[in-house]
Amino acid sequence: MMKKHKFDNETFKQEVRDCVKYLFRRNVEDATQEQLFHAVATVLRDYIIDDWIATHKAYEHQDVKILYYMSMEFLMGRALGNMLINFCRDQEVKTALSEMGLDLNVLEDQEPDPALGNGGLGRLAACFLDSLATLGYGAYGCGIRYKYGMFAQRIRDGYQVEVPDNWLKDGNPFEIRRPEYSCEVRFGGHVTMRTDENGRQHFGLEGYNSVRAIPYDMPVVGYGSGVVNTLRIWDAEPINTFNLDSFDRGDYAKATEQENLAKAIVEVLYPNDNHYAGKELRLKQQYFFISATLQTAIRKYKESHDGKLAGFEKKVVFQMNDTHPSMTVAELMRLLMDEEGYEWNDAWEIVTHCCAYTNHTIMAEALEKWPVDLFCNLLPRIYSIIEEIDRRFKLLLSEKFPGDYDRMGRMEILHDGKVRMAYLAIVGSYSVNGVAALHTEILEKRELKDFYELWPEKFSNKTNGVTQRRFLCHGNPLLSEWITKKIGDGWITDLPKINALSAYLDNEEALHEFMEIKYRNKIRLAKYIQEHNGITVDPSSIFDVQVKRLHEYKRQLLNILHIMYLYTRMKEDPEFLKNYYPHTFIFGAKAAAGYGRAKLTIKLINSVADVVNSDPSIRGKMKVVFIEDYKVSNAEIIFAAADISEQISTASREASGTSNMKFMMNGAPTLGTMDGANVEIVEEVGEENAFIFGMSADEVISHERLGDYRPEEIFSSDADLRDVLIQLINGTYSPENPELFRDLYNSLLYTNGGQRADIYFILKDFASYHEAHMRANEAYKEPKRWAKMALTQTAHCGKFSSDRTIEQYVDEIWHLDRLKL
Questions:
Q1: Strand 414-415 relative to strand 418-420, pairing
Q2: Crossing angle for the helix pair 742-749 and 719-726, to the nearest 10 degrees
Q3: What pLDDT score was predicted for residue 756?
Q4: CB atoms near residue 520 (< 10 Å)
């Protein structure tokens, strides 16, 4: 049953006026738009507070099982608009503000995107928090309060430039500092051990450095549920702020040493780890938020259970979102043994019944491995616990598979001077899940085959999902209103109900309305591009979009090489130019600061754009746009406007993907490989409503196993593709430096340092990709066919709600209790 709060228009307006006056010493008429945003946000937060308090009282009084969702990233997006929707008062607030002469959309644009995440991992975590609150389950999201995020991306002369994303410079009106839950987190030092009169060993730590972890809580409002859960992000402060004695002796660096240690931990998401200091900082960050979260979870449980931990594993679950939080296993063991006095076996029984692990990558090289010397110097007690977990695990393996030393070598946690963090998570968890059917199958049959053979009961699939409340209700209000007008609003909390739109697939009036909404959204995006890029694009052209984290396996390089190919054809073949439907190719992506080849790909995209966009001879048939600083707020505009969803990763590489689901929700057919969740999307819409190309996962895996792929043979036999590749090194797109893109050229044709040429099969899939592109080009020329195809995407997106994913986690892994409010 939906909970809808009382709302009085005049009271709300007066509260906004008062807030502007008391916060900024101004009247509404004199306040800046930014000040008005802060005032409205503060009033909204105050409305939410009662539900927030009631939710956490219900945690205690109903003694429900609580989820701690552990993640290095939470890509939340702007809070104001989404909270208003979930609070079910967005229209009333919009009306009240309008009566005050204020525009809610303008106020929303004053809010910076919280710089707490980067890619799909963080956005998935945010969707999950939304669904947990909407469905009425008690949960905390647990992460770090990054001061500057990963970075804000600027494009200068076509290159990515990283600048600090200072999202907190004007404060965050939605967060509350909670110093009463602060705790100490220790690094370095050496382990001490004493034996008591009963022969029991007790471990401690001496000579360590430490910081104080301070939580900041942000509300996560469920849609119409009355539940307000918490995103708890940890800041770091020095234990001793300033050493005056060192300062007076002239040792100024020593005087602020503790403060600098604390600052560094929370400044940046994913610091560059191409050097030792960067690796050390990443490891510190992981341990910092894990230790703080676990200490607080134990403390809160004891406070509501007569100071005891009995039954802890029945009332608490820690979900590790990828390998970053996998130290949860070892840190929980430390706290239970060293702080709470448990023996090893009893502590292990608790840990292995309340820790669960989600794997998000098929790529073995992406599974975190830390050098032993770094690990044991920074976290000596945690390392000693991992050593013992590994020893006991290998004893189990020797019993299960006697004499199979190869298997033991493949599975041991400590191997070749590294700590294999994914293996620690698997050994210490009662559940291990993949995030798409194909991904889970590959984990079980290949990447984690040995663990699956040992513990098949641990493994399951939970296909990812996204929240329709963010990516339809907020991101595409025109379409959202149209859907509700056609089928009612039940889909907002039960997305499979959206399938009722299938009744309109042959209704010409409905199809026309649907495509008119798409066109209006394209006008909105075209305006954004004009304002931010200075490029004029035609809303009646096909908006062909690839927006996602930039990585070689996601194959943005395939996309831009194909654009180069199309451009060459247009220049050389008047008939091709005449028959080609106008396209606007849109990219958005950040490359990790230390990922040179990914950054060079961004430069190539922008260099091609400079040439193509300024060439009058192609008569506006093609534009190329790279949207700077891709994030949730501009993603919502992009998804709503897209005609084609580029999901072109090398088959077997993408675990799931979630942008594919957001595009689908907004009526964009997939042009992609049968990889990740694309497989399940095609199952829902039918292959006739997608443009599939490329090798299958089995074919890719076979080529890798046999080592029989020869990209140079394609280079030799395909003259058109060869001409495109030669353009990378002949100055076509970099006349001032013809060698600029040499590394991209070499990566496609030459083995280097043990990495084979064209590791992601770009040349192998190129012809098939072009053929799929041309099929899409022809389909778009038939308006009714395309409209039906586009509406089919939205009508069949019901499976891909994060609500469905969360219910599967609850039923099969977490076993949470629904709150009664």
A1: antiparallel
A2: 140
A3: 94
A4: 14
Structure tokens at 573: 């073949």
Element (H, E) at 723: helix 719-726
Residues of the chain falling short of pLDDT 70: 1-4, 241-256, 365
Quote the strand ranges of 519-588, DSSP E: 542-547, 583-588
Q: In terms of Cα–Cα distance, which of 134, 130, 154 is closest to 74?
A: 130
Centre a 10 Å sphere on the Cβ of residue 180 and count the other Cβ atoms it contains: 7
Catalytic residue of the set 147, 284, 360, 631: 360
DSSP state, residue 469: I
The SS3 assignment for 143 reads strand
Q: Is 317 helix (H, G, I), strand (E, B) or coil?
A: strand
Amino acid at site 428: G
CA dist 111 and 103 (Å) reads: 14
Residue reference for tokens 């076979």: 702
Rounded distance between C-alpha atoms, residue 762 and residue 637, angstroms: 29
Which amino acid is it at 87?
F
Q: What is the largest CA-CA distance in the chain?
A: 92
Nearest CA to 433 out of 359, 368, 501 is that of 359
- 656, two tokens: 């799931």
Q: Is 275 a catalytic residue?
A: no
The CA distance from 796 to 488, in Å, is 16
What's the pLDDT at 752? 87
Q: Is 783 exposed, middle or buried (0-12, 13-18, 19+ CB in 10 A)?
A: exposed
- Total number of residues shown for the chain: 821
Catalytic residue among 147, 282, 662, 796, which? 662
Q: Residue 548 catalytic? A: yes
State yes or no: is 360 an active-site residue. Answer: yes
Question: Which amino acid is residue 604, in one-letter code?
Answer: L
Encoded tokens for 29: 């008429």
pLDDT for residue 361:
87
What are the start-end ranges of the H helices in 244-275? 244-248, 252-255, 257-267
Catalytic residue of the set 462, 549, 551, 590: 549
Task: List, in order, residues 6 or more apart from 674 with CB less than 8 Å away.
Answer: 438, 651, 682, 692, 694, 696, 697
Helix axes 90-99, 9-24, angle to 10 degrees: 70
What is d(CA 613, CA 610) in angstroms, rounded to the nearest whole number? 6
Catalytic residue among 78, 554, 555, 773: 554
Of 284, 548, 583, 623, which one is the catalytic site residue? Answer: 548
pLDDT in the model for residue 259: 83
**What local confidence, expressed as pLDDT, does residue 367 receive?**
83
Residue 554 annotated in active site: yes
Q: Judge whether 529 and 646 are in contact, CB under 8 Å.
A: no
Residues 720, 702: Cα–Cα separation, whole Å = 27
What CA–CA distances, in Å, run from 135 to 229, 353, 730, 804?
A: 11, 24, 57, 10
Look-up of token digits 């002796």: 249
Which listed residue (463, 467, 584, 658) is catalytic? 658
